[in-house]
Design brief:
By secondary structure, the protein is an alpha+beta fold. About 15% of the residues lie in helices and about 35% in strands. A hairpin with a 7-residue loop joins β5 and β6. The longest helix has 13 residues. The protein is globular and about 35 Å long.
Amino acid sequence: MYQLTSLNSLKKDVIPQLTYFEFKKGNKILNIKKSESFYLFSEFENAVQTNIDFKPKYELLFHQNETDLNKISNIITDGRYFKYNFENSKVVIVDVGYNFIERNFKASDFVNEIR
C-alpha cells in the first residue's frame, strides 16, 4: 500500500540538545558511545518532522540539560521514526530516513540490563 506522508523540515529549536543515548528493548540495553550519540543527535537535527504512525520497538534513554525549557518525558522509536513526548504534552515525531539501529548495530550488541 502506497502512503503519502507530509514531511516538514525540522527546526533546530524543536528538539532540545540531548546526550548519552541508550536504546532499551524489554530488559535489554544498547549503550552507545559518545561519538555515536553525537552522530545520532546530528541525525535528529537533519531529520524531518512527520505525523506518521509507527510501531515502537525501543525506548531511547538520554540525558537532557537541566536548564532546557522543553523537557522531554520519553522518546520511543522503531529505529527510523523517533517520537518525542514532552512534559507539556506536546508530541513531535521525526524521521531520520533510515533505521539507525539496524544500520549501525547487531542484535547481540543489546545486553541484559543490570539493576
